[in-house]
Design a protein that fits this description.
It contains 6 helices and 10 strands; from the N terminus they run αααβαβββββααββββ. By secondary structure, it is an alpha+beta fold. It has an 8-stranded antiparallel beta barrel with strand order 1-2-3-4-5-8-9-10. Helix 1 packs antiparallel against helix 3. The longest helix is centred in the first third of the chain and has 24 residues. It starts with 8 loop residues before the first helix and ends in a 17-residue tail after the last strand. The C terminus is likely disordered. Keywords: Plastid, Transit peptide.
Amino acid sequence: MVQQTVQGPSAAYAKEMERLSAKESLLLAFKDAGGFEALIAGKTTEMQCIDVNERIVSLERLNPTPRPTTSPYLEGQWSFEWFGSGSPGLFAARFLFERFPPALANLSKLDMVIKEEYANIAANMKLLNLIESSFILSTRLSIEGPMRMKEEYVEGIFESPKIYEETIPQQLRSAFAQTASTVQQLPASIRDAMAGGFKIPLGGTFQRLFLISYLDEEVLIIRDTAGVPDVLTRLDPAPLPNVETITEYES
C-alpha cells in the first residue's frame, strides 16, 4: 500500500515561512558584506560574495510570482542592494565615478523607478558633502516572456548639481550668494538649459536581455545573459495584488 503525501495548509505555511526566512537571511548577508558602500568601493571579499550569491539562489527557488514580467509588484521605486558587471546600475555609477576623484565624492545611493514600460536608474553622488549631483539612465522595457524582458538604453541625463546653502561654510556663503546672483541674471533660455542638465542620447544603441528570477512585494532579483544577479529592495509601498493580465510576448 502506497502512502500519499497530502499538500495542505500546513505545507503551504511551512513553505512561506521558509521563503521569509531565506529573504531575511539574504538581507542580513548584505549587511555582513558591508552594504552598498562596500560593494561600490570594491571592498567586499570573495567569501562575502559567495555567501551572498548562495543566499540569492536559496531565495530564487522559492519565488512566489510565476509571471513576474506582468506582475503589479514590478512597477515602483527600487533601491540597488547588489549588482553585477553588466547592470545598468553599475553603468550609471561608473559614469559618475569616472568624472570625480574618489577622495572628493561618494556615491550615496543607486535607485530605479519602473513605470509603464520604462525604467529610470538614478546614481546620486555627493561632492565634499556640499554638492549633490545625479546621473539618470533612462531605459525602455519590453516583455518577451513570463520571466524574460529586453532593456534598451534611451538616454543618459547628467543633472545640474544641487547646492544646499545650509551646508556651506560661513566663510564661503558670500561667494556663493554672488555666484547665485550672477546665474539669475543670465537669459532665461540659458538658465533653463542649465536646470535641465546635460543629456546624452543613446537611441537604443545599447540593449540587454534579462530574467526576473524572483519578485515579491519587497525584493526583486534579475539576472543578465551571463547569469549575474542584481538584487533590489522596494522603497515605496507595494501595490495591492490583483489578477495578472495575460500579455502577448514579443518574439
